[in-house]
Amino acid sequence: MLADTADCLHPSGRWQRAPDDPRVDAALLLPALNGALPADDPRNTATLRAVTTQLTDDGYVYRYRPDNRPLGTAEGAFTLCGFLLAQATHRHNPTAAARWFERNRAACGPPGLFAEEYDVTQRQLRGNLPQAFVHAQLLHTSLHLATHR
Questions:
Q1: In 3D, which of 50, 6, 57 has the Cα closest to residue 29?
Q2: What is the mean pLDDT of residues 11-35?
Q3: What's the pLDDT tens digit per position in 106-134?
Q4: How distant, in Å, are the alpha carbons of 18, 22, 65, 114, 140 from that of 136?
Q5: How confident is the model at residue 92 (pLDDT cuts 50, 70, 90)?
Q6: Where are the domains of the chain?
Q7: Angle (nearest 5°) at CA 25 between 83 and 21
Q8: Residues of the chain by 3-state class (helix, strand, coil), percent to 5
Q9: DSSP 108-129
């Protein structure tokens, strides 16, 4: 078990970005995906629920809300986080996981390359291109979904 996990536990029972930053962050799905804590730990389940309800729009996932503006105003959806959400959802709902995966897989450019971000409103790539971390997570998630049926 992680030492002093209460420092980053939100009052709602989900993980928060930092002791002094109560925002939800899709990157907080990673510890459960990498085995740091059991995936069915209530804190991870609450984080998954918070990411799904607070950081998604039209099938895409934003890493976090940088401020009080609507999602998509400050930055685009993070395609890497879309693949993380697909993998995190798979245990609870394989059909929903496949939907998250396919929606985010479709956010690539004509040569099949992914950028760091995707503009949900304008339906175009944003940020660094190509983004190796997104491609690696695409492969990792596709392997996970295919082998954990």
A1: 50
A2: 93
A3: 999 888 899 999 999 999 999 888 889 99
A4: 26, 29, 24, 10, 6
A5: confident
A6: 8-147
A7: 170
A8: 45, 10, 45
A9: --TTS---SEEETTTTEEESSS
The confidence score (pLDDT) of residue 4 equals 61
Per DSSP (E only), the strands in 1-137 are: 56-57, 60-61, 77-78, 117-119, 124-126
State the sign of the Cα–Cα–Cα–Cα dihedral 71, 74, 80, 84. Answer: negative
Helix (H, G, I), strand (E, B) or coil at 35: coil
As a whole number of angstroms, the distance between CA 43 and CA 49 comes to: 10
As a whole number of angstroms, the distance between CA 136 and CA 130 comes to 11
Least confident of 38-42, 43-47, 59-63: 38-42
Q: From CA 72, how far away is CA 62, in angstroms rounded?
A: 8
Answer whether 8's CB lies under 8 Å from 16's CB.
yes
Residue type at position 72: G
Give residue 2's pLDDT.
47
